[in-house]
Specification:
The complex is a heterodimer. By secondary structure, chain A is an alpha/beta fold. Chain A is built from 9 helices and 10 strands. The radius of gyration of chain A is 19 Å and the shape is globular. By secondary structure, chain B is mainly alpha-helical. Classes of the chains: A alpha/beta, B mainly alpha. The interface between A and B is medium-sized, with 27 and 17 residues.
Chain lengths: 258, 278
């Protein structure tokens, strides 16, 4: 035990973005994004469609190359050009709005394919671990079904299981309930609650404002590729300081979504 | 059952009966007209003797059938090579790395050139050209170069089908696989190609049916397969019936394959949920 009043090392973020920029042609999608995510943090990104939430997530997991700036994972800039993205992506899970499950594989194969191909786990062991993961998410009885035989909510839970099977250090959730029927949203959000309780570090782009308010450690409001306002959920949702944030939340309230 | 649904059923049944009746009557009318009208043409008697001579048919048919075995053999050994070469060409065209530019360029030129030349010309060019290089006897075999021609030509077509199949797999599938940390070649092998294969079965089957017929072009450089045998028989008997017999033999192979291709296409339509609008 140290007698020091302060920790010896500064608390380092698990993931930091520094001045991240991204344009598609002449359209600026991300305009100098700075963001810090500590281990175990749940950060939600809110904002209108086209504000850059998805692109930000895709830049973090290197599905989109950044034009400028740093994406620092455990102190290493992973946006450095020329870095092999594959070993980095193994550490960062991503769940997509449209699930992106592999339709030609059974549910358990979807979950097992990552460990099998990427980590070289043998087939039966990967299947066993996959079944265990599906059991955790209440999907054990659908293990041998194919994705198109499942409801949207089940498919999205399989997609989460597929990501978790790789044991990611950070999980990126890209509007994971936006393609679901309203009555199926709850089961997916329950999984996210469970992950938060288990201490998973998450970066979560969402339109589910009530849920963002409930689960976030911090909320970032994105507007035209910038983080216009960032703060605790109570601050962002109850007393936003930026006029744009207020206007956005007002529109959400008017639509009956908050 | 509600009154409404029984009425609907009755209506549907009446409609179906009506369609069947119309189809039957129109078929009888057309076939009847052909059977009655064609024999009335002034040249029919000569055509019947020249093309539909029963004796010639019976005498030449066994020989044609055994000659057809060579066509089937060419087909069987060419097909795997076509699949392999066309997959390689398709993958080459899909590469992105600048270092592989020559490979990509080769694939583009290959498909452009080989699809742009009639198969019959390629058979002549390769079938006569390559052996003229003074190859040893075993390698001067026209069967080899005929088959090579078919492989080269058909690979160009099927490469384009495979490439279209690869492109038809949605980008989000790649994103899903890459986000797990799979490399681009693992993604191609485990995620993209298995889905592409399912999409391309119907067009591949159609191409396979064309190949079954184009195998006969190999006869132009020597091998006595069915077309050449029919030509020999035609000269021997001074009668065209062997050509009709050969056509029937081809149909016995191509029609089942065509039906199978249609069935595969229909099944795919049903699976992807595409419906036919009446």
């Amino acid at each position: 035990m140290s007698d020091e009043p302060f920790p010896l090392r500064p608390v380092e973020s698990k993931l930091s973005l520094r001045g991240v920029r991204k344009s598609f042609g002449s359209t600026v999608v991300l305009d100098s994004i700075d963001l810090d995510v500590a281990e175990g943090d749940v950060i939600t990104l809110i904002g209108a469609s086209g504000s850059g939430k998805s692109t930000l997530l895709r830049c973090v997991n290197l599905l989109e190359p950044t034009d400028d700036g740093q994406v620092i994972l455990d102190g290493v800039d992973i946006a450095e050009p020329g870095l092999d993205p594959d070993p980095i992506r193994r550490r960062i899970g991503m769940v997509f709005q449209s699930f992106n499950l592999f339709p030609h594989m059974s549910v358990v194969d979807n979950v097992a394919i990552g460990p099998r191909k990427v980590r070289g786990v043998d087939k039966s062991e990967a299947r066993r671990a996959g079944l265990e993961m599906l059991t955790r998410l209440g999907l054990a009885d659908r293990a041998d079904a194919y994705p198109d035989q499942l409801s949207g909510g089940q498919q999205q839970r399989v997609a989460i299981a597929r990501s978790l099977a790789m044991n990611p250090e950070v999980l990126l959730l890209d509007e994971i309930t936006s393609a679901l029927d309203p009555e199926l949203v709850g089961e997916v959000l329950d999984v996210v609650r469970g992950l938060k309780a288990a201490g998973m570090t998450m970066l979560f782009a969402t339109h589910e404002m009530a849920f963002a308010r409930e689960i976030s450690d911090r909320v970032c409001f994105l507007h035209q590729g910038r983080i216009l306002e960032e703060g605790a959920p109570s601050q962002i949702f109850e007393s936003p300081t930026e006029a744009r944030t207020q206007a956005f939340l007002q529109r959400v309230i008017d639509a009956g979504r908050l | 059952m509600s009154d409404r649904s029984t009425r609907r059923e009755r209506y549907e049944r009446a409609r179906r009966r009506r369609s069947v009746a119309i189809a039957t009557i129109s078929t009888i009318a057309v076939v009847g007209a052909l059977v009655i009208l064609v024999p009335l043409t002034p040249g029919w008697e000569r055509v019947r003797q020249a093309f539909f001579d029963g004796d010639v048919f019976v005498e030449t048919f066994p020989g044609l059938l055994s000659a057809f075995w060579l066509d089937v053999q060419i087909l069987l050994w060419s097909t795997p090579f076509i699949l392999i070469v066309s997959l390689l060409i398709a993958l080459a065209r899909n590469t992105r790395s600048p270092a592989l530019f020559p490979l990509r360029a080769f694939a583009v030129i290959y498909t452009d050139v080989l699809r742009g030349i009639p198969v019959i010309l390629l058979v002549f060019l390769i079938g006569f050209g390559v052996p003229a290089l003074g190859l040893s006897r075993t390698w001067a075999n026209p069967l080899i170069w005929g088959s090579v021609t078919l492989v080269l030509s058909y690979s160009a077509y099927t490469a384009e089908i495979i490439r279209a199949g690869i492109d038809a797999v949605h980008e989000s599938q790649r994103a899903g696989a890459r986000s797990l940390g799979m490399t681009s070649s693992q993604t191609m092998r485990s995620v993209v190609l298995p889905q592409a294969y399912r999409k391309i079965v119907p067009p591949m089957m159609n191409t396979f049916v064309s190949l079954q017929k184009d195998v006969a072009l190999v006869s132009l450089i020597g091998p006595v397969e069915i077309l050449r045998q029919a030509g020999i028989d035609k000269a021997t008997y001074a009668n065209f019936t062997p050509y009709v017999a050969a056509s029937l033999i081809f149909l016995a192979l191509t029609i089942p394959c065509t039906r199978l291709a249609d069935w595969a296409l229909a099944r795919q339509r049903a699976r992807t949920g595409a419906t036919t609008i009446a």
